Amino acid sequence: MTKDIRDTLALTDGVEHVFMASDPRVFFHSRLPKADVQTFLTDTFEPDELEAITDYEVVVLTSADWTPQVEGTDLAITCVQCENEVNDDGETLRLDGELYHLCCPSC
Questions:
Q1: What total of structural domains would you count in the chain?
Q2: Are 6 and 41 contained in the same domain?
Q3: How many CB atoms lie within 10 A of CB 39?
Q4: What is the DSSP string of 19-58?
Q5: Residues 45 and 9 in one domain
Q6: pLDDT 10s digit of each residue in the chain, 107 long?
Q7: Domain-embedded: residue 95
């Protein structure tokens, strides 16, 4: 059920980050339009998921920093047409809600 709760949160508008701990806890960072957490929970989760949430804590953040690190990783996007690496000349295409990356305009 913890995975279901995490997956639901990950698809919810306003939720920016979801973390699952090694114990059965889920943490998330969200920007709620209203400070009404109970309404957010009931609007977000199905009844069985909501029943599995036995406790929650709200912390109002006064600041947050996020510094993603991509150094030292082999991060490459592959063209969906020819499987070449997509670089600065690449194109991005959205069809039926799906995002596709192409290495060049001819692909």
A1: 2
A2: yes
A3: 11
A4: EE-SSS-EEEEE--SSS-HHHHHHHHS-HHHHHH------
A5: yes
A6: 888 899 999 999 888 899 999 888 999 988 877 778 888 899 999 999 999 988 888 888 888 887 776 665 666 788 899 988 888 788 888 888 788 888 888 88
A7: yes
Q: Model's pTM, two decimal places?
A: 0.56
Other C-beta atoms within 10 Å of 101: how many? 16
As a 3-state breakdown, the chain gives helix, strand, coil percent values, each rounded to 5, of 20, 20, 55
Domain that holds residue 78: 74-107
In a domain, residue 18? The reply is: yes
Same structural domain, 44 and 8: yes
Whole-angstrom Cα distance, residue 78 to residue 66?
A: 27
